[in-house]
Design brief:
By secondary structure, the chain is of the alpha/beta class. It has 17 helices and 11 strands. The chain has helices at residues 42-51, 58-76, 79-82, 100-105, 107-118, 159-170, 184-200, 232-244, 259-263, 282-294, 310-315, 320-326, 338-341, 353-365, 390-407, 412-415, 427-447, and strands at 3-9, 24-30, 90-97, 121-128, 151-154, 175-180, 207-211, 251-254, 299-302, 385-386, 453-454. Helix 6 links the parallel strand 5 and strand 6 (175-180). Helix 5 (107-118) packs antiparallel against helix 10, helix 14 (353-365) packs across helix 17 and helix 15 crosses helix 17 (427-447).
């Protein structure tokens, strides 16, 4: 195991010494490209937003720079080689910010938030930005027209974010959508869905910011990259808040996610810890809202679908015709590359956890038309699926969870606490979470009728 330190630098002249602890490996992460321009797509994002009348605050920029440190560390420090237990890493980051005093006041909260999200041990330090970069944001012109957007929403290219976008536009809002342009298939889905929304709503004002931030060419010497990306939602949320600080009257960042996935209750005893992601868990969102309050940012993060299953989201969509038209262009699969290994075009595998929930939701919500998605495993009942192979593992886990709950429905009120604390939720909301968990499993159960699995 090695402990890692990521030190953010604003150009070659930024040489403030950072003390390295015993046994700690330090790596520089530079944020300035040619001509004092902010790198890693941060400068480009500021430019793109200013063109549509959005001018993020200095603290909003700090947050995006912090997220870049987190994203770089999370995706470039291998859990297999850099941790004692093949999972938990010890990571320290030192971030140049506009107001270290304000940021130091929320440092314990940030560590708690990131530890919960990624399962690592994060230590976070702040220092002043170097001379010439004290502000580094675009100033709002004095006679600028009123900002054209009234809300901010994440737009991932998945089915839930598509439904959230349709509902928001249909309700008359003018949303500013935020996308992380990562893997090619996901980026293509984002673009095709956004253009589909534009074609339908030609007179409504909405826009999309795409942030890349992929750190091409940057490496930690002697360390392989990490593929689990448990910290990705920190970047997503930070990008949304960054943009939201450019709205003049405060903002709500909408994070559309069905309740079953948001809770992500482990399906079986083996899916604890490393296998249970927490990207939209209620505890995580609550800590983000605590962070915004601590930073005096006039915004709030909300998941408007925390109490709905994915199938209920599909069924209740405000424009079912548009949804049915765009569903085939949305992408939910956890591993887009799987189909390419088999010599097929990129498609949904049909057997990972997100695919199974998607299949169940579209069968529930698009009836009688059905699910138009092309799946590698199109027919789940044609043969027995081995639980020793990927095609049967998640299905068997769902079967286990469904059978366990059928035998003892009251377990739902206990199981919803497994992924993380629900101390911020009232008893009424906790009861609603238990209910959406049961309804979500029931949706999946319907598509597993006749599906056989075996360890042989």
């Amino acid at each position: 195991m090695r402990r890692h330190l990521i030190v953010g630098r604003f150009g070659s002249s930024d040489s403030v010494p950072i003390t390295t602890a015993n046994g700690e490996v330090a790596t520089k992460l530079d944020f300035v490209a040619a001509k004092r321009r902010l790198d890693h797509d941060i400068g480009s994002s500021l430019d793109s937003l200013s063109k549509v009348g959005v001018y993020p605050s200095v603290i909003g920029l700090d947050l995006l720079v912090l997220a870049a440190h987190v994203q770089a560390a999370d995706t470039h420090i291998s859990r297999a080689t850099e941790s004692q237990d093949s999972w938990t890493r010890e990571i320290r980051i030192v971030v140049p910010v506009s107001d270290p005093v304000r940021w130091n006041s929320v440092m314990p909260l940030l560590s708690r938030l990131l530890n919960f999200l990624t399962g690592d041990r994060w230590t976070i330090g702040f220092r002043p930005r170097p001379s010439g970069f004290e502000h580094a944001v675009h100033e709002r012109p004095p006679q600028l027209l009123q900002c054209p957007f009234d809300t901010v929403a994440l737009f991932s290219g998945g089915l839930d974010s598509l439904i959230g976008a349709i509902n928001s536009i249909q309700s008359g809002k003018s949303p500013l959508f935020i996308s992380h342009a990562g893997e090619g298939t996901v980026s293509q889905s984002q673009e095709e869905l956004f253009q589909g929304l534009k074609r339908k709503h030609t007179r409504q004002n909405f826009h999309r910011l795409r942030i890349w931030m992929d750190f091409r060419g940057w490496r930690i010497r002697g360390v392989k990259p990490e593929k689990t990306t448990r910290g990705r939602s920190f970047l997503f949320f930070a990008a949304g808040v960054f943009a939201g600080t450019g709205l003049p009257n405060g903002f709500t960042l909408q994070v559309p996610e069905n309740g079953l996935i948001a809770l992500n209750v482990p399906l079986d005893p083996l899916r604890l810890g490393a296998f249970s992601t927490r990207t939209t868990h209620p505890f995580y969102i609550a800590r983000w809202n605590e962070l915004l309050n601590g930073l005096s940012i006039s915004g709030r993060i909300e998941n408007p679908y925390w109490d709905k299953t994915k199938g209920e989201m599909v069924a209740d969509c405000a424009d079912s015709d548009l949804l049915a038209q765009l569903v085939p262009k949305s992408f939910s699969c956890a591993s887009p590359a799987k189909s390419r290994w088999l010599g097929r075009k990129t498609e949904h595998c049909g057997f990972c956890l997100p695919c199974l929930i998607r299949r169940a939701a579209l069968q529930h919500g698009l009836a009688p038309a059905g699910d138009p998605t092309r799946y590698t495993l199109a027919n789940m009942t044609s043969r027995v699926l081995s639980t020793k192979k990927a095609r049967g593992q998640q299905i068997r886990s769902f079967q286990f969870a469904i059978g366990r709950l059928a035998a003892n429905p009251a377990l739902a009120t206990l199981l919803i606490h497994k992924p993380g604390p629900l101390s911020d939720e009232s008893p009424t909301r906790q009861a609603a979470l238990a209910d959406v968990y049961k309804r979500g499993l029931n949706e999946v159960n319907k598509i597993l009728a006749g599906v056989r699995t075996s360890p042989d």
